[in-house]
């Protein structure tokens, strides 16, 4: 198989006989050396026209076309008594949450003014939480294998949030609320360093008007997804005995920010 963009040379020729359509195609996602790709399998029709089949062309909207030539003329209509001829191609890199349109057709094609038939598959790739993508490098760098292991302790005048940072992310915010309705969302910026695998412990002090706040979620900002990264709300409550002094009524280091 090799790349063939643009019209194939068979279009310029008149063909007395042409092969039947592809019988069926199936597509699945495979991971090869950290890259997610499509494994495209097609099955040929079992009829006499298979002797005129020279190649099969596979096209994808974002990646162009691949042509797979058959090196010898088919001597039999099937591989065995009960199994049609079947071939596979692995290629075309896959991103998460993307629409893909794959066209597969046999060559030589129908002549001009005759029906040109093909099989088209439309599929939407899953997100990085899906097992077919989560182990691919582009998803790993967006946190697909990251477990922040969040623990919190909600004391009077202070909320302590602990988590394990990712090697691929250096920016985090903690989303907290002043009530379950979360009418006044609060975003607390966490200073951290990329590559730091030591637990981050962030103590958020409140003033006397905000004696309790509710942890909502941890928001990472991976370079590959920025403002659209997965957010993490699951946590465990772990409190160590520690006396917190009451802050001054005018002092507060919590910044209230609107969340767009």
UniProtKB/TrEMBL annotation:
<feature type="domain" description="IL17RA/B N-terminal">
    <location>
        <begin position="38"/>
        <end position="141"/>
    </location>
</feature>
<dbReference type="InterPro" id="IPR038683">
    <property type="entry name" value="IL17RA/B_FnIII-like_1_sf"/>
</dbReference>
<dbReference type="Pfam" id="PF16578">
    <property type="entry name" value="IL17R_fnIII_D2"/>
</dbReference>
<dbReference type="InterPro" id="IPR032356">
    <property type="entry name" value="IL17R_A/B_N"/>
</dbReference>
<protein>
    <recommendedName>
        <fullName>IL17RA/B N-terminal domain-containing protein</fullName>
    </recommendedName>
</protein>
<dbReference type="InterPro" id="IPR039465">
    <property type="entry name" value="IL-17_rcpt-like"/>
</dbReference>
<keyword id="KW-0732">Signal</keyword>
<keyword id="KW-0472">Membrane</keyword>
<keyword id="KW-1003">Cell membrane</keyword>
<dbReference type="GO" id="GO:0005886">
    <property type="term" value="C:plasma membrane"/>
</dbReference>
<dbReference type="GO" id="GO:0030368">
    <property type="term" value="F:interleukin-17 receptor activity"/>
</dbReference>
<dbReference type="InterPro" id="IPR043046">
    <property type="entry name" value="IL17RA/B_FnIII-like_2_sf"/>
</dbReference>
<dbReference type="Pfam" id="PF16556">
    <property type="entry name" value="IL17R_fnIII_D1"/>
</dbReference>
């Amino acid at each position: 198989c090799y790349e063939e963009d643009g019209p194939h040379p068979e279009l310029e020729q008149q063909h007395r006989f042409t092969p039947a359509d592809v019988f069926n195609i199936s597509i699945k996602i495979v991971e090869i050396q950290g890259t997610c790709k499509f494994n495209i399998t097609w099955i040929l029709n079992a009829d006499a026209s298979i002797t005129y089949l020279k190649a099969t062309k596979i096209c994808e909207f974002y990646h162009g076309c691949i042509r797979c030539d058959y090196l010898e003329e088919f001597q039999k209509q099937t591989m065995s008594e009960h199994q049609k001829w079947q071939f596979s191609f692995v290629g075309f890199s896959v991103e998460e949450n993307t629409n893909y349109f794959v066209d597969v057709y046999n060559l030589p094609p129908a002549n001009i003014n005759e029906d040109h038939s093909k099989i088209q598959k439309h599929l939407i790739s899953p997100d990085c939480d899906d097992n077919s993508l989560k182990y691919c490098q582009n998803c790993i760098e967006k946190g697909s294998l990251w477990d922040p292991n969040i623990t919190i302790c909600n004391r009077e005048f202070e909320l302590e949030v602990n988590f394990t940072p990712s090697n691929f992310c250096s920016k985090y915010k903690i989303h907290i609320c002043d009530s379950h309705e979360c009418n006044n969302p609060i975003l607390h910026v966490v200073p951290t360093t990329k590559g730091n695998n030591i637990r981050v412990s962030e103590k958020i002090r409140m003033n006397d008007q905000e004696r309790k706040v509710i942890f909502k979620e941890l928001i990472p900002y991976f370079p590959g997804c920025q403002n659209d990264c997965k957010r993490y709300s699951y946590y465990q409550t772990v409190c160590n005995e520690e006396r917190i002094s009451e802050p001054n009524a005018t002092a507060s280091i919590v910044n209230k920010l609107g969340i767009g």
